[in-house]
Amino acid sequence: MSSVKGLSFSIAFLLSTLIYSQNKKIDSLRTLSENQDNKNKIITYLDIATIYTGINLDSSKIYTKKAYELSKAEKNDSLSIKSLASLGFRHFESGNYENAINFFNEALKISEKIKDSTSIADITNGFAIVYSKKGDLKKSIEYNFKTLNIYEQINDSLGIGNSLMNIGWDYRKLKEFDKSLVYNLKSLKVYEDLDNTLRVAMVNNNIAGTQNELGNYEKAIDYSKKSKEYFTKLGYKRFTAYPISVMAVAFDSLQKPIIAQKNYKEAIELHTQNREPFELAFLNYSLANLYYKQKKYNEAQSTAEKAIAFAEEVESKEYIADISKLLSKIYEKQRNYILSNKYLKQYVIFNDSIINNEKLKSIAEIETKYETEKKEKEIAVQKEQLLEQELSLKNRNLYAIIITAILLILGIIFYAVYKRNQLRRDQLKKEIDLKDALATITTQNRLQEQRLRISRDLHDNIGSQLTFIISSIDNLKYVSKNTSDKLKEKLTEISSFTGDTIHQLRDTIWAMNKNKITIEDLNVRVLSFTQKAKTAFLDVQFKIMSNVVSSKDFSSLAGINIFRVIQEAINNSLKYADAEIITINFEDENGVFKAQIQDDGKGFSLDNITLGNGLSNMEKRMSEIGGSIKINSSLNEGTKVEIEMPFKNTTNDV
Assuming Cys at both sites, which of 67, 140, 294, 409 could form a disulfide with 45, CB separation 3.0 to 4.6 Å? Predict the structure, then answer.
């Protein structure tokens, strides 16, 4: 018991020390501001306001307002934007959402006037979190993806992390918990790379909340403890209320009502100190629900009434709906059927207004639009890079030709002057040499034209093939005119490689142009591939069997990966196994797609072989889509490649 008391004293001492340190820093900034001009004083006031956000919200608003009044007097657009945005966030934290929106609108007008992308992104982020709190998730997600797009354009890592975290929060409210976890983990990676402890604390709290929703209550408690520890070390005692709230929900779900109730009350006390109605609505609702489960209906009623008052204050449709439903059940238990019916009707009205299928569809379209625009930008950048490479190559070769020509002409002139007294025969020889040199230049020009034509034809292919083609053609200029057979052989290799690349590109386009790939599509593609293989391997017989319903399908990503693995397995049998029969069999076992590619070739020993790029790529492709691959082979007994892919895991592309 004494050790517990000692630990409690240490934590209290640490908190008091941190608060003292923060207050001391504030006093130092106040002293500094006394002798500053207005411009620097505004920045100092905003710094003081930022420190106060973790200690006292009212004090933070006071200093933010002082900064705003000074910025108006200074008529400084940049400082006015910072002050207005800061006021917006302070009012948001107090639950005054309409005031927050008004301040953000003023700041946005100035930002757009001076075309300040960073400020536009910060303010758009403000709109996103306000609408999220108000329960307008369509607007919130739309603003969040807009914000993310701007931050990515200006390469602002902190802003990117913030947008990802907010998107994760909104998806959690939409009950898209897997998506929420994906975006929060992306955000956590950004903040950890930036070593931003405050943001790491915030996103750990969000992940904890999502783990609660997924039913992973122990994980939720672990993430919450990390979040609370970070906030405590930073001196943000006010913010510890958030992970405490999440722990309360987790303990509540784990049927530990005493610990849950203690945490609910502790979080309520912290949020009451700064009067944060949105959080108080949630916490009082959760505590009321705990009382209801314990059949303490009077305590549940009074606590739920507090909760709905806070929810109505901030106009949170989501909480008004949830609390109304709880009050309806409480009054029913108290046999007050009039109030029970009243709150049940209120629940139906607000629940219908929160989210419906059409809204969910439009929200999904927002994310799709963002992903599409992002891919289009990436493609545009790649095209621009290819054009730059093409132009650079063209200029480099042109300079080489010009320099060679100049040097050659200078050499000819010098040689003519030096040998002007030679016989006519020497003069004729020099003329022949000149013609040979000019013929060489002409040949180089033609070779250059051919190289540029190939570059233009294949500029949309992947960079490695383009580099290989260019390097191969470059090597040709070192082959002398007497080795035309070598030149033909080299061009033949390039043509063959280009053909393979085009087939790969067609396969990729085939997959990209489909929302889904059916078993019938896959059968046709494999059959087409084996037909082509027969023309090169006349002695090989293919057997293709399928016991899978042809209408069953995969996503485009899963479909192309499965086809590539089958293609690689067939190629290995053709190239290395000396096989006479290759059997390809598709089966459906309880919703799991299974494909077997078996040959009767010479096989190999798995213990005496190192996986090459081909086999490694096959494993990697199946791993990427949640599938598996197994390779069985023995000397002189053939090789069997088995792949498995659950149909239910192939419905979404990344």
Answer: 67
**Sign (positive/negative) of CA torsion 299, 301, 302, 303?**
positive
Query: 402 in a domain, yes or no?
Result: yes
* Range from 21-25, 115-119, 570-574, 602-606 carrying the lowest mean pLDDT: 21-25
Question: In 401-421, which positions are buried (b, 16+ CB within 10 angstroms) versus exposed (e)?
Answer: eeeeeeebeeeeeeeeeeeee
Q: Please tell me whether residues 531 and 635 are part of one structural domain.
A: yes
Residues 496 and 535 in one domain: no
| Residue 569, domain extent | 515-650
> Rounded to the nearest 5°, which phi and psi values hold at 571?
-60, -40
Residue 10 — pLDDT band, cuts 50, 70, 90?
very low
Q: Is residue 584 in a domain? A: yes
| Measured distance CA(338)–CA(347) in Å, rounded | 14
Confidence band of 503 (pLDDT split at 50, 70, 90): low
**Whole-angstrom Cα distance, residue 496 to residue 215?**
55
Q: How many domains does the chain have?
A: 2
User: How would you classify the pairing of strands 592-599 and 581-589?
Assistant: antiparallel
| pLDDT tens digits, one per residue of 152-185 | 888 999 889 988 988 888 888 888 889 889 999 9
| pLDDT for 508 | 64
Dump pLDDT digits (tens) for 288-326. 999 999 999 999 999 999 999 998 888 888 888 999 999
Does residue 528 lie within any of the structural domains?
yes
According to DSSP, residue 601 is labeled: S
Span 426-435, pLDDT tens digits = 777 777 877 7
Calpha distance 458→495 (Å, rounded): 12
Question: Do both 586 and 500 map to the same domain?
Answer: no
Q: Which residues contact 318 (CB under 8 A, 6 or more apart)?
A: 135, 173, 354
Average predicted confidence (pLDDT) for the chain: 80
Enumerate residues 6+ apart whose C-beta is below 8 A from 60. Answer: 49, 50, 52, 53, 90
- CATH code of the domain containing 577: 3.30.565.10
79 against 441, higher pLDDT: 79
Residue 242 sits at the vertex; the CA angle it makes with 161 and 281, to the nearest 5 degrees, is 115
Evaluate whether residue 46 is within a structural domain: no
Residues 441 and 540 both lie in one domain:
no
Question: Do 580 and 608 share a domain, yes or no?
Answer: yes
Among residues 158, 162, 95, 163, the alpha carbon closest in space to that of 130 is found at: 95
